[in-house]
Amino acid sequence: FEISRKQKDELNNLALKEGATLFMVLLALYNILLGRLSSQEEIVVGTPAAGRRHADLQQMIGLFINTLPLKNNLSGAKFFKEIIKEVKENTLQAFTNQDYPYEDMVERLEVERDASRNPLFDVMFVFQNFDINRLKIPGLKLTPYRYHTKTSKFDMLLAGVEENHRISLSLEY
Questions:
Q1: pLDDT tens per residue, range 91-125
Q2: pLDDT of residue 36
């Protein structure tokens, strides 16, 4: 499904008013949806972190992703702006510590392993807000490749891509 240019602009204005990012506003909405669907107040959503904060990795080709579990609490009667504020604070704190290896976190928390599920979260949120069509590397010709997975890796994955002044979203479950 798609968020129109007008709706995207309204979400961006809300994010600006709240000192948040579009990612944080969409994550807050996703948390509310998950809370309503599950009747749970504590929601943990996984999200990827780029993993390229070290200068030596900036020009290196390859995948450097760490997964961050973002835990938010929806308990009590909160206004949407309060939820955005909490999601913002939790997200900033998690991204500040994004270099801490996910596997070490799982081990340190002594979570009981179950091969049928992820140890810290069951749902994922991915938001890409860079123009992949404009990505250029000197000496290389890059062509975007759209692929579709056949098996969901999580109970639910909400993936968003900001392109052409809109946001395209897909829900995989």
A1: 999 998 888 888 888 889 888 888 888 888 999 99
A2: 93
- Residue 21's φ and ψ, nearest 5 degrees, are -110, 165
Distance between CA atoms of residues 116 and 124, nearest Å: 16
Got the DSSP string for 70-126?
A: EEEE--SS--HHHHHHHHHHHHHHHHHTTTS-HHHHHHHHTPPP-TTS-SS-SEEEE
Reduce the DSSP state of residue 62 to 3 states and report it: coil
Q: Is 47 within 8 Å of 31 (Cβ atoms)?
A: no
Report which of 28, 43, 5 is spatially closest to residue 88, judged by C-alpha positions.
28
In whole angstroms, how far apart are CA 71 and each of 30, 49, 74? 12, 15, 10
Strands 156-163 and 42-49, by their bridges, are: unpaired
Residues (pLDDT < 50) of the chain are none
Q: How far is CA 165 from the centre of its chain?
A: 19
Contacting residues for 119 by C-beta, under 8 A, at least 6 apart: 106, 111, 112, 113
Q: Which residue in this structure is represented by tokens 């200068």?
A: 55
Closest by CA to 46, choosing from 162, 142, 132, 155, is 155
Within its chain, how far is the Cα of 159 from the centroid?
8
Nearest to 48 by CA among 145, 169, 159: 159
